[in-house]
Design brief:
This protein is mainly alpha-helical. It has a domain of 25 residues. The relative contact order is 0.08.
């Protein structure tokens, strides 16, 4: 057998498009709160600058 983990089969889906992977990938781990809060903060900041700096 190959070196794949033995476990339950993948769930059935339309054309096999849904897959779940347990492998960890390399890269930065970022908290989802940060991912949501930074763009939201930039939007609010741009609104505030637009309101107060309009002549």
């Amino acid at each position: 057998m190959s070196s794949k983990k033995k476990g339950a089969p993948l769930p059935a889906s339309s054309a096999g498009l849904l897959r779940f992977f347990e492998d960890e990938t390399k890269g930065f781990k970022v908290d989802p709160k940060i991912v949501v809060s930074i763009p939201t903060g930039l939007i609010v900041l741009s609104w505030i600058l637009d309101i107060f700096l309009v002549p």
